[in-house]
Amino acid sequence: MTGRFAIAAIGTGLRTALASLIAASLVGVAALSVVTSSSAQTVPIPKPAPKARGSVQMSASDSQKAPMTTGATSAQPPEPVIPDPRRNVPSNIFASFDANQKAQAARVSSYLSSLQTLAGNFVQVGPDGNKTKGDFYIQKPGKVRFEYDDPSPIAIIADGSSVAVRDRKLATQDIYPLSQTPLRYLLSDRIDLLKDTNVVSVTADDLFISVTIEEKQALIGTSRLMLMIGAKDGQLKQWTVTDPQGYDTTVAVYNLDTSKRLDPGLFKIDFTKYPVSPG
After folding, report:
1. Cα–Cα distance between 137 and 139 in angstroms, integer?
2. 148, β-bridge pairs
3. Rounded Cα distance, 112 and 225, in Å
4. Is the pLDDT of residue 32 over 60?
């Protein structure tokens, strides 16, 4: 996310790219009181992007990583479904949707609005094709934590108003307003996607319901967030963030748990141990 809409690549590109995370994650967990996991999809790993945004991979956990709160039996990580890059064509801001598309968008909106807590695992495929894993925790409204497995020193934390990209190795963190990231869509108590966001695409097939949100920022460019939930089980499967340069970061989630109470300390931004990095 070289543009704040996708926090997908830490390092040079990550700091200016706030967002893949998340948020989207929430978009598919339909049943709140059950523990589910997404099914694996057989798809090829994408070829490296023409230009890499950074040399540091996002795949680490914080030194004080909290135990996973999922109570489900651990499942094999799913294979992220890599979207067709040709889908990112210029959109019509006056796009209209038929009754079926509106119903599908309403289903996703209802799902997001019903969600209160969520914990699970994720697999991320960056724009260069590198795959990383980790754990995530969500507490609505406004709180989320993403921890990447070793050797990455990165954790991403939202406390309700700010988002911190923490580097355990450097003991620093970058702070961004939650209001400037897609997290705000997924972490709000209630949301109507067609009314509260700029939805540019709603599609459905036998496997997924996909909703794409577009955001245009004057100094940054156009970014997109595509949320995918299972067509049959209504559960969150994955999301893809496209940064203003056209690079995709896809995150698939599994071992989802909506029943556990999460430690409030997971969402605390520590400005003592991890001060804001210079610049």
Report:
1. 7
2. 134
3. 15
4. no
Q: Are 253 and 136 in contact (CB under 8 A)?
A: yes
The helix/strand count (H/E) of the chain reads as 5, 12
Q: Which residues pair with 154 in a beta bridge?
A: 167
Tell me the average pLDDT of the chain.
75
Tokens of 224: 């997109």
Residues 203, 74: Cα–Cα separation, whole Å:
30
Could you tell me the CA-to-CA distances from 222 to 50, 101, 216 in Å, in that order? 19, 23, 4
200 alpha carbon, distance to own chain's centre: 18
CB environment 86-121: b (16+ within 10 A), e (fewer)? eebeebeeeeeeeeebeebbebbbbbbeebebbbbb
Q: Check if the beta carbon of residue 53 is closer than 8 Å to that of residue 9.
A: yes
Cα separation values, 22 from 16, 44, 50, 232, 250, Å: 16, 23, 25, 23, 11
Rounded Cα gap, residues 263 and 267, in angstroms: 8
Distance, in Å, from the CA atom of 97 to the CA atom of 83, rounded to the nearest integer, reads 21
Structure tokens at 86: 């040709």
**CB 213, CB 108: distance < 8 Å:** no
At residue 107, the pLDDT reads: 95
Instruction: Please write the tens of the pLDDT for every residue from 231-276.
Output: 999 989 999 999 889 899 999 999 999 898 899 999 999 988 888 8
Lowest average pLDDT, out of 61-70, 75-84, 97-106, 201-210, goes to: 61-70
For 236, half-sphere exposure in the C-beta direction (CA atoms, 13 angstrom radius) is 37
Q: What is the pLDDT of residue 218?
A: 80
Mean pLDDT, rounded, for 50-74: 38
